[in-house]
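Readers outside the structure-tokenisation community will struggle with the description of the input data as it stands. Showing the layout once, in full, would remove most of the difficulty. For illustration, here is how one protein appears when written out as sequence plus structure tokens:
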Amino acid sequence: MNKAISKTTVILVDDHRVVIEGIKSALKEHPEFEVIGEVTDGLKAVKLANSLKPDIMILDISMPGVSGVEVVNKVKASASDIKIVVYTMHSAKEFVVDLFKAGISAYVLKDDPLSDLILSLKAVTSGETYFSTMTPNVLLRHMKEMEEKDFSEDVYNSLSLREQEVFKHLAEGTSIKHIAAKLFLSPKTVESHKYNIMKKLQAKSIVELTKIAIKKNLIEV
């Protein structure tokens, strides 16, 4: 008997039906993903997310009814486990920064190949964050412009040498799998280091780790 494929459930939110159909067509070649709902309105997207509780929501920013940023805030407030992949034409800094602050897991531009969207879904399913090619630079520029909070030298120095290595790779946006390969560690060990690093540095996200790394001149912008 063939073992059933474990499905990752997805809902699609875009005000253009052609975009929705294009994504659905692309996902047919990836049976591990199952589209269980689709809407073209922001307010309906929030209701659909709350009722279906998908693993992933693919979301456009420009939506009638409720904006993409509002959708993210509302969904994260009521169903924080849902991973949100933003799929949009917009690359303006204010969109990128606000959405990552709100808790999205991936940001993909519609100008990018559709295969990038598929890659983002696979990354998010594995618990990783995915950026469009332009997104890291936008975030890094924003962080450099922000007024930095005081960061104690002793806090960073409390990291072990291995944790400092992992920290730098995380701040550069390297995936858990690739960090494990580079440092000859298991992904589980890297995940453990990540947890300890974020706890020691009181960081809630990779974006905050990147901000710390920039202030300490550990990575280039």
User: Anything to note?
Assistant: Strands lie at 8-13, 33-39, 56-59, 83-88, 106-109, 130-131. The domain at 8-141 is CATH 3.40.50.2300 (Rossmann fold). The chain has a mean pLDDT of 84. The CA atoms of residues 28 and 93 lie 33 Å apart.
